[in-house]
């Protein structure tokens, strides 16, 4: 099957007074039609940046894509004009955000915000767009959509706002949804509802979803495959069951160990020693080596590439064969 | 009834704001109803009644051509309000557009615009207004234009600052991911969300604008005779100040009261829109 989105060897750097921070260091990622792919990693590992690069929304003055390609529907995205990107955003590729509280314009009614996008991308008349907006609100299970379109964002709860944003993101027929920690700011019950809704709606429309999160439980619930990022690299990628149950990369293992376990609530939570390296002077070789227990000479010198461990399961680690 | 109770509560809570609002209301009403409320024609010369002191026929006296000062003050309110609102309106409009574009685009455009504004702000505003209005030609319309141009940087700075903070807000980013063009982002996201401080600045600015317009007229670069303009009246009355005190005093008092009205109201609006003062 042809991937919908294919990122290969993507390098992104940020220029600042001290030099170039290499925030994405050769990302390879494929997303197939209708698939849910989880992208996990700690803060600053480059998850959101990857999503922004796909949408062409990297800060123009400081970010530099030095290498790599992003193919969407078989066409290269890097180097497209702002105008071309505007035609893609919201129409073919959409995004939902971490904080639904702030993602709607406080000065306009919900209906108006939805109608504008529909008019922009689908060229609907005002009346058609209004009907479409109501239909989409029903689709995301909002009670009383006729009333909600006349309300301002402050009148809605966080969960409702996230539903509205999801409706907005999907209303113009996007094939790819970039969900940047869509449930982090919501409480647990609402989280589950929103995830279920996302899954249901995306499955129904055949939309592919790139779910960015640092919550492994969310990944386990919703995704078919998961990619683990560390410091601008993908260190492990594979089917969720494989990666979560038989992790191969020391970082993935450490992450899983750091999860609270309800069966052993007395034991202290494990943490990964050390901290995320400074990206201006990243460690040579494997970027995880200063924090890794299994470190050996090769790790400090050469960057490991993703290699197959089992079907569809890849890991970038020199010591991978030693602990499978 | 509920509205009335709210009004009473409001008056008690913000007496100065309400005073300001009442003054503005009165000035607006008087200037709208000028032909009905003024006792005499403001432009009719009556040479037998020159420089009459305040009395029963001429409540606030007459000027050196026998024109009724009260009537001229009433008609003068029209010019002063027009000047105040016009100046703030023009300056605000340009300020909002230039400021939001400059803030959103950033970079070289922003640098160029802001340095130009810095240069304009480096001049004392009255001197710059004087020079501009002398260059444009001394009349009332040009004096308003000149003052408006001088006041533009105030709004540009204000709006640009707002735009800088708003463009980092999530809903602007969200709008970008939905494919909104830059023009949309400025007109529907940045401008509507930065209006509150502009409104405060504008209400406070009206008083000052009236004052500067009157000053230009006083110097002779604003409204030209025989226009009934407060600043021009004070200017003419200045010659007679020692013997006919009423000629310059009453228009002066009119300026004072109107400006105070707008300032009190502006302060009140600022406090109401500032969450730190709200409780």
From TrEMBL, chain A:
Keywords: ATP-binding, Cell inner membrane, Cell membrane, Membrane, Nucleotide-binding, Translocase, Transport. One of its GO terms (biological process) is peptide transport. It comes from Desulfosporosinus lacus DSM 15449. PROSITE patterns: ABC_TRANSPORTER_1, ABC_TRANSPORTER_2. Gene3D superfamilies: P-loop containing nucleotide triphosphate hydrolases. One of its GO terms (molecular function) is ATP hydrolysis activity. GO terms for cellular component: plasma membrane. Belongs to the ABC transporter superfamily. This is Oligopeptide transport system ATP-binding protein. InterPro entries: AAA+_ATPase, ABC_Ni/Peptide_Import, ABC_transporter-like_ATP-bd, ABC_transporter-like_CS, Oligopep_ABC_C, P-loop_NTPase. It is found in: Cell membrane. PANTHER family: ATPASE AAA-TYPE CORE DOMAIN-CONTAINING PROTEIN, OLIGOPEPTIDE TRANSPORT ATP-BINDING PROTEIN APPD. It is a peripheral membrane protein. Pfam families: ABC_tran, oligo_HPY. Residues 5-256 form the ABC transporter domain. Its main location: membrane.
Automatic annotation (TrEMBL), chain B:
The keyword Membrane applies. It is found in: Cell membrane. InterPro entries: BP-dependent_transpt_permease (IPR050366), MetI-like (IPR000515), MetI-like_sf (IPR035906), OppC_N (IPR025966). Gene3D superfamilies: MetI-like. CDD domains: TM_PBP2. It comes from the Bacteria. The keyword Transmembrane helix applies. GO terms for cellular component: plasma membrane. Keywords: Cell membrane, Membrane, Transmembrane, Transmembrane helix, Transport. GO terms for molecular function: dipeptide transmembrane transporter activity. Residues 81-266 form the ABC transmembrane type-1 domain. Belongs to the binding-protein-dependent transport system permease family. This is Peptide/nickel transport system permease protein. It comes from Desulfosporosinus lacus DSM 15449. The lineage of its organism: Bacteria, Bacillati, Bacillota, Clostridia, Eubacteriales.
